[in-house]
Amino acid sequence: MISGGSTAATLxxxxxxxxxxxxxxLAWGPGGTALCVTGGAVQxxxxxxxxxxxxxxxxxxxxxxxxxxxxxxxxxxxYPARLPDSSLLALANS
Length: 94
Fold this sequence. Notes:
By secondary structure, the protein is mainly β. It has one helix and five strands, in the order E-E-E-E-E-H. It has one domain. It is globular and about 35 Å long. It starts with a strand and ends with a helix.
């Protein structure tokens, strides 16, 4: 997560082989940010997105837009509340 040009959190999510389909679940709230990728555990960071955040870059590993996914996002689900870690694990591994 990049805020004001500085890296506030880095959650790698694990290793995904090129050309392999995977699921990822990302959540954030006042308690921090969490990420889970297929086959992995939930990773946490105490960093929270800044108030008034307006962008979520799907398929990019950099705010500079220089590390693109070079693939496709088949499905994106957004929930109106911070899901618990157990739900992230279930979503990423279902």
